[in-house]
Amino acid sequence: SVVSESTTLEDFEKSKAPLLDYLANAGCLRPMRSIGDRDLLVHDIVMFQVIYRVQCPFQRYSVGCFLKSRHPDSFCPLFCFEPSPLTADLMDDLFSIHLSPEGSNKRVEEGPSKLQKILAFATGASVVSPIGFSRSPSIQFIHRGDDDFSCTLMFPMANTCVNCIMLPLHVSYLLFKEKFDFALGNTYGSSFYLCC
Q1: Catalytic residue among 161, 164, 195, 196
Q2: pTM exceeds cut of 0.70
Q3: Can 65 be counted among the known catalytic residues?
Q4: 121 CB burial (10 A radius; 0-12, 13-18, 19+)
Q5: What are the entry keywords (predicted)?
Q6: What CATH number was assigned to the domain covering residues 88-185?
Q7: Domain locations along the chain
Q8: Cα angle: 102, vertex 104, 109; to 5 degrees
């Protein structure tokens, strides 16, 4: 507005001086020979502010609208949150395991011996062989009302022929842990294994 209110060429040059960087960025560097050039500069500034400055973002927006009309679901993940289903891999990535100090009795209970028992329960092997397993170990769930639920007395079962643990769903974690620990500690020669 100071530029447009200049009445002499000297006032015009003074009002333009603090804006030189802006004018250079806007591409408004026309030579000013008379006070009449003031209106041309004001026109250039208005064109830059109103049209040219927003032209690129508008074009990008137009391209985005065009793409959205042809592929309406492609932008949804960018702007709309949709919870993904929980998977074992996702849960594994979410949690970090905090073990007790190495060498402590608690660490012995938390460590490899418990994991070896779980592996042995599911596969019959206490270590992973160099060639792995012909069938990847898996977990299935036993629901109330399933035939297997009542006959197991709610204990986990395993089928070592297909490397599978079948876990009954309990109403509390403590009950599940109690039944699972009992099954792990009493698997050799017991009925917790299913035969092939």
Answers
A1: 161
A2: no
A3: no
A4: buried
A5: Transferase, Ubl conjugation pathway
A6: 3.30.2410.10
A7: 9-77, 88-185
A8: 95
